[in-house]
Write a structure and sequence with these properties.
The protein is α/β, with parallel strands linked by helices and 241 residues long. Helices cover 45% and strands 21% of the residues. The chain has 10 helices and 7 strands. It has a 7-stranded mixed sheet, sandwiched between helices. The protein binds S-adenosylmethionine. The site of S-adenosylmethionine has 22 residues, from helix 1, helix 2 and helix 6.
């Protein structure tokens, strides 16, 4: 099968900054199961030593992450997103209003993790965004992000996952059908067109086993499937270093 090529990161950042209100409704109506995923992430973060550091890649407005961190002691928190502008300012405010000492950076997360790391983190998270990279860049991502995690620390990936033996094309069709079933009235016809175009052209999900192989090659010790929802179309994986 020929792999669909990924969109340039700047175009994806531009898409999210111009269409943020469309994406924000998808989160608010829980169409992608942010509530369950971030509740599970919170459970894991609660078990870390208080005062942990966290890097959130492709943070968007970090709204769900900020809720997951509510009341937890975080020593340092960096959020990276290419959308920049109001989206990233919202991320800073959402985190700081919950007492999280947040810094924000308007950068491409792949380039960011490939740059030299001076101060690694206890926890790195990337939610609903790794799928924007093609297969080769996902491998580069794992190689790069490994240096940003302390030994014994973890990477959490929340994302679309291709169920074993199925294809990314079938994943796209099933996710679009799931979104319509759960939230037909959330969008008008033009907005549905925007959503479907984005998913059909920008989403390149993988099987969990493919991500596990990339992580192993990058030096991670293990992968745990923390949550699978919607028949395995959406999931949270934890990679321990
Ligand atoms: C679907 S949203 C997810 C936002 C948030 N993580 C969440 O869970 O709701 C995808 C985000 O990834 C960002 N993004 C996509 N590709 C990126 C890249 N290469 N570098 C930085 N940010 C990127 C977009 O700007 C957008 O804010």
């Amino acid at each position: 099968m020929v792999e669909r090529s990924a969109q340039p990161p700047e175009e994806i950042g531009q898409f999210f900054s111009s269409q943020w209100t469309v994406y924000e409704r998808m989160v608010r109506f829980n169409l992608l199961r942010h509530k369950e995923m971030f509740a599970c992430l919170r459970e894991d973060l609660q078990s870390l030593k208080p005062g942990f550091s966290l890097l959130d890649l492709a943070s968007g407005d970090a709204g769900s992450l900020a809720m997951a961190l509510q009341g937890l002691r975080v020593s340092r928190c960096v959020a990276v997103d290419l959308a920049g502008g109001p989206v990233l300012l919202a991320a800073r405010d959402n985190l700081r209003f919950r007492g999280i000492p947040a810094e924000v950076k308007a950068l491409d997360f792949l380039r960011f993790v490939q740059s030299g790391c001076k101060q690694p983190f206890d926890a790195v998270t990337i939610a609903y965004s790794l799928h924007h990279l093609d297969h080769g860049d996902k491998q580069h991502f794992f190689q790069g992000v490994a240096q940003w995690i302390k030994p014994g620390g973890s990477l959490w990936v929340i994302d679309g996952l291709v169920p074993p033996g199925e294809t990314p094309e079938l994943w796209v069709a099933k996710v679009i059908s799931h979104l319509h079933l759960q939230g037909e009235t959330v969008y008008n016809a033009a907005e549905w067109q925007t959503v479907e175009n984005h998913i059909g052209t920008c989403d390149h999900p993988e099987e969990a086993t493919a991500l596990h192989e990339m992580a192993t090659a990058a030096g991670f010790q293990s992968m745990t499937t923390r949550l699978l929802l919607e028949g395995g179309l959406l999931g949270m994986l934890r990679f321990q270093k």
